[in-house]
Automatic annotation (TrEMBL):
It comes from Podospora pseudopauciseta. Belongs to the Gfa family. Its cofactor is Zn(2+). This is Putative glutathione-dependent formaldehyde-activating enzyme. HAMAP family: Formald_GSH (MF_00723). Zn(2+) 1 binds at residues 85, 87, 153, 156. PROSITE patterns: CENP_V_GFA (PS51891). InterPro entries: CENP-V/GFA, Formald_GSH, Mss4-like_sf. Catalyzes the condensation of formaldehyde and glutathione to S-hydroxymethylglutathione.
Length: 249
C-alpha cells in the first residue's frame, strides 16, 4: 500500500526510523498474556501453552513471537540477509542487501502471520535491494487485485515479499517479514498498525484495549491505519499529485 520515488522516500524513511527507535523502552515484561474475562493481563502461562490454545481469538493471545517476550533491538549496521519460506526442503529464498525500515506489527487480514499470532511483523526495503535467490518457481501471487502483490510459497503458504506495481505513494518499496531470516540484527518493530483490523477477523472488540495496552507496555504506539510519518508521506504524495503541493524537486 505504501509514487514518490524510492530515491525521494528512502532517506525520509531512515529519518523516521531513527526517531522511532528512541521510543523503544527497555525492561519489558515477559509475556504470553491472557485476554480473558478479567481485564488484567496474566503472565502465568508459558508461550507454548498460549500458542497451543490460541485458536480462539478471545482466549489465549500471542501478539507475535517477536513481541510476546519483549523486543530485541536490531543493529544499525546490519547489512541485510536471506529470508526463507517454511518448507522443510527446497525453500524459496530471497536475499535483501539492506536492513528493513518501518518494521511494524500489522493487524490487517492480508499480511502473513506465523501460526497462532494475532499480528504480522512487516517492514520495507527498496525493491532493487531484493532478489529471489532460490526456488522462485514456487512463488505465486496471493491476490492479484490487491495493491500489494504478495508473493507466497505455493507449498507452505508463507509470504516472501509484497510488491506494488501501480502508481502509489509507496511504489518502489517491497514488504517483507524479516523473521523468515536466521540472521540477527534486523530492525525491531517500531509501532503497531491496523490494530482494530483484528476485530474484523474475529477478535473480541471488548478486549482490544488490552491488546493496545500490551503494545504500549512494549513501547509501541498503536494505530488503526499507519503511523503518522507514513500517513504524512502518503498525504504529501497525494498533494503533489493533485497539484495542491509543489512538485518534488
Ligand atoms: N481492515 C483491512 C485493512 C487492509 C489494509 O488496508 N491493509 C493495509 C496494510 S498491509 C494495506 O496496505 N493494504 C493494501 C494491500 O493489502 O494490498 C483488513 O484487515 O483487511
Ligand atoms: Zn497488513
Amino acid at each position: 500500500m505504501f509514487g514518490v520515488s524510492v530515491v525521494e522516500l528512502w532517506p525520509f524513511l531512515f529519518d523516521v526510523l531513527a526517531a522511532c527507535m528512541v521510543t523503544i523502552k527497555t525492561g519489558l515484561l515477559p509475556v504470553c498474556f491472557h485476554v480473558g474475562a478479567s481485564s488484567s493481563l496474566s503472565t502465568s502461562l508459558t508461550c507454548e501453552q498460549q500458542l497451543s490454545t490460541s485458536t480462539s481469538p478471545d482466549r489465549m493471545v500471542s501478539l507475535h513471537p517477536l513481541l510476546d517476550n519483549g523486543i530485541t533491538p536490531g543493529s544499525d549496521s546490519f547489512p541485510g540477509g536471506t529470508l526463507k519460506c517454511l518448507c522443510p526442503s527446497s525453500p524459496v529464498e530471497i536475499t535483501l542487501t539492506t536492513n528493513v525500515a518501518h518494521n511494524h506489527a500489522c493487524g490487517c487480514s492480508k499480511c502473513w502471520k506465523p501460526a497462532g499470532a494475532l499480528f504480522s511483523i512487516v517492514g520495507v526495503v527498496p525493491r532493487d535491494e531484493l532478489s529471489v535467490t532460490a526456488n522462485g518457481d514456487k512463488l505465486t501471487i496471493v491476490d492479484e487485485s490487491a495493491v500489494i502483490q504478495r508473493y507466497a510459497c505455493k507449498e507452505c503458504g508463507t509470504h516472501l515479499y509484497g510488491r506494488i506495481e501501480k502508481e502509489h505513494p509507496f511504489y518502489g518499496l517491497d514488504f517483507v517479514h524479516a523473521e523468515l531470516s536466521e540472521e540477527e540484527g534486523w530492525q525491531e518493530p517500531q509501532f503497531a498498525a491496523f490494530v482494530s483490523s483484528v476485530i474484523e477477523q474475529g477478535f473480541d472488540p471488548a478486549k482490544i484495549g488490552e491488546v493496545r495496552a500490551r503494545f504500549r507496555e512494549l513501547g509501541l504506539e498503536t494505530y488503526d491505519s499507519l503511523s503518522p510519518p507514513l500517513m504524512d508521506a502518503i498525504a504529501a504524495w497525494t498533494g503533489r499529485k493533485n497539484g495542491k503541493l509543489p512538485a518534488a524537486a
